[in-house]
Amino acid sequence: MTAPAETQPIQATDDHLTVSGLACAAGKRVVLRDVDFAVRRGELLALVGPNGSGKSTLLRALGGVRKPVAGDVLLDDVPLGQLSARRRARAITLVGQEEALPADLVVGEMVALGRTPHRPPWAGGDAAERAAVLAALDQVGLAYAVDHPVEQLSGGERRRALLARGLAQQTPLMLLDEPTNHLDLRHQLGLLRTVRGLGKTVVVAMHDLDLAATFCDRIAVLHDGTLLTIGTPADALTPTVIHDAFGVLATPVTHPRTGRTHLLFSADETEPHP
Ligand SMILES: Nc1ncnc2c1ncn2[C@@H]1O[C@H](COP(=O)(O)OP(=O)(O)OP(=O)(O)O)[C@@H](O)[C@H]1O
């Protein structure tokens, strides 16, 4: 598989997050264990894996929202647990998968919630804040909806409004849980191009392996709560890894126009249906 084609790979120079011996539990059940890796500054890292493999749990742990039962996550060498919520919110944006939107706000007000960590206590919005909100909405192609009621947004518009709220938070690190859900093809590509162009460190959970390989610098493959592998798309998304993680057959093919390598998937009839 070739390097991301949308832009040149961003030069990552050091580690932004360091994950060591991480384990997380849901109730008494350990759902993530023995996870060790680093997120390099400025890279776009995809988290892929089957349903229930632990992607959302890992993202929440990377954001300091999910407390580990073992191990640690360091932000620039500082354990996340040592940071105040406000400091964390100025450093890390977490855009979750199925966040309920406050129905009685207009879109601009909802996106302005992303500015909260930057305000002094009890401060209201000002012109700079409105500019940040409009810029964030513009980045996701939603500026036209700034005064629309949130409850009137389509599923795809809701996803983009949530991302805009995250962009308005203006942190150097973003954690995105399936941001392309509900988006049509053009908006999926547009959103990933936008994310890639941010120049931030981004970790994104996604299901589309081909899009992950096209846009991301590296890919981490989760399976059953463990990190199966992490590496460049070519190194991480081999037919063997894909079969081990997803139980499907993958065949690399060359795109006749671009020359890039893509994967075709087919069912492995010897695998039991999940
Ligand atoms: N609140 C919870 N209570 C009990 N189990 C949970 C809870 N949250 C997650 N789990 C379990 O933890 C495991 C990992 O879930 P997680 O949501 O992290 O997976 P995922 O890879 O993001 O899945 P998906 O692709 O379906 O979004 C699953 O087995 C899930 O059932």
TrEMBL record:
CDD domains: ABC_Iron-Siderophores_B12_Hemin. SMART domains: AAA. Keywords: ATP-binding, Nucleotide-binding. Gene3D superfamilies: P-loop containing nucleotide triphosphate hydrolases (3.40.50.300). Residues 17-249 form the ABC transporter domain. GO terms for molecular function: ATP binding. This is ABC transporter ATP-binding protein. The lineage of its organism: Bacteria, Bacillati, Actinomycetota, Actinomycetes, Pseudonocardiales.
